[in-house]
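Run log, item B.
One chain of 663 residues. Sequence copied directly from the ordering sheet:
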Amino acid sequence: MGRKWRAVLGVVVLAGILGSAASPVSLFANPVAQTADAESATPTRPVLTDGADLAGFMDGLMAAHMEELHIPGAVAVIVADGEVLLAQGYGYADLETLTPVDAETTLFRIGSISKLLIWTAVMQLVEEGALALDVDVNTYLAATGVQVPPTFFEPVTLYDLMAHPPGFEDRNIGLFATDAAQLVPLESLLTDLPARVRSPGQYSAYSNYGTALAGLVVEAVAGMPWETYVETRILAPLDMTRTTVRQPVPEPLDADLAQGYSYGGGRQQPEAFEFVPLAPAGSASATGMDMARFMLAHLQLGTLDVARPATQILESATARTMQTQHFTHDPLLPGMAHGFLEFNFQGERWIGHLGDTLRFHTGLYLAPQHGVGIYLAYNGAGSSSARERVVEAFSARYFGDATPIVPTPPTVSAAQLAPFAGDYRSTRVPTTTADKFAGLFTTLTVSVDPAGYLTLSGIGLEPVRLTEMGPGRFRQVEETGVLGELEIIFHNEPATQQPVSLFHSRIPFMAFERIAWFEGPVFQGALLVVALLLALGGVIAWPIHFLRNRKRPGRKIRGGQWAYAVGSVTALLVLVYLVGLALVLSNYMALVFGAPPLFKAISLLPWPLLLLVIGMVGLAVWVWMLGVWRMGGRIFYTAVALIFAALVWQLWYWNLLTAWFLL
């Protein structure tokens, strides 16, 4: 899989099993594949317990990734069979002081891996009989003042929250904060829940709010703050003394917190601490060795040291349940366990979680069948693709079948594949808020190659070529011609048997729904460009015509002057708005800290723009009725008026027409 795909789709940013739908045509282009030259296979598999081999392998991988991706510092921890095989720091925790990363002492922000602490807490309370996973969460939230709205008949349960198909929309604005003063009590924050946009259990759509709700449930049932519960019931028993869920990191741990960096202009830029208002979803900071203890506890079915029952945090049956698949969009694809994401590397099942802030990227991966766990953490903004590449290489070296598979050439035509072509938008998108336009950046485009392959692409992503492996099932073909691990599967609308959803093997925690052609990035982007160019033309041409004709008498001339005046003001307003919007989108990630003043300012403009466009459309009719101007001038004015009207529709579609009231 291309590196940009890893970076974007290995997110951070999952109740029953959905059946596989039939293909719109019966296609079995590549049911048989052939192995590549046997000489390319690894003749002897290295032994994982060979410490020198493991250390050398990891040192080389980490050094290469850190140089390529401009990563200041990292930590890698590997456990197996109850032991820590490797715990190594790389690079620097702080470039100014040249403080090296230490697996024992250096804390990294672990982002959404924090969720595993909450899900462990939930399963502890289930074990004690205080919680039931299939009960409406509103039952447990009754005393908090927070209630999930009854938008759909089906209630939201802890089952839904753990696997991420409760049906909430996503939110991006305000996901992070720059100051502790911006943090509010969890109970207050969750009174404003995202809208429920689909019934529970239909599609997974990763939700930070869902995990925060579970944290509030823990508080309500346990009778203590969720932070206190995690500290006393999970961190303390596991001797995770250098892990905290508090923000900011309390003394004396704060002195050992790695500095987060972004890279640009050939240098590393230190960035401020990122506060997470939805704290249960991503507030924790931890050392590599503490995460080793957490991994070992789950690999050993709830017990850190089998010889010391006092360190048990879960009963073995509960731990097994937590590791069992609970939800998947298709039986042929990875899905979700109880809070754990599923991954497939080299044919091996892994469970775990990814963690992302803007500056820190982490990954926790467990292979229970091998008793192996890997934890990786980086303090560079561009490091998100490194973690998956490490686990891929690790699996290939120590577990997987290294024999490459060369697929047989496709036997289907482009016409047979045509039903799959189109745009598919992620279910993890804002729907009712002012940042709905995030959907443009989470849209995958499927196109058909004349040779009988599908091409999967998206904004900022390297295209991937896929070959059919069965009805509606496609697998990546690498540039070398061998099969890759990325798979996509389509499901169809039963009545029409046309593809309506796409599922991606690397992203079990979201689905992609088919959208109309006019909702996709190509049309939406083209409309913006055309509107911008016409606005430039109008701003230049119409004021000149207005000034030339300002002293000429006659009803026709006055009508044309009104059209020039309204058109000039409208074009100027369109130009100002689109330039402002471009500036906002150029630093889109800044929105996660809240709506910038520029966004709020330009959000005032769509309403006067709406009135002006209505005026332009009316005046376009008038100039035709009066017969003013030459034919070319009337056609140009009418075309601009209609494009501006389409732009107003576009602003309405993306909630930008009402953004002032939503921010």
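Observations after the first pass:
- Residues 136 and 157 are 5 Å apart (CA to CA).
- Residues 555-586 form the longest helix (32 residues).
Flagged for discussion on Thursday.
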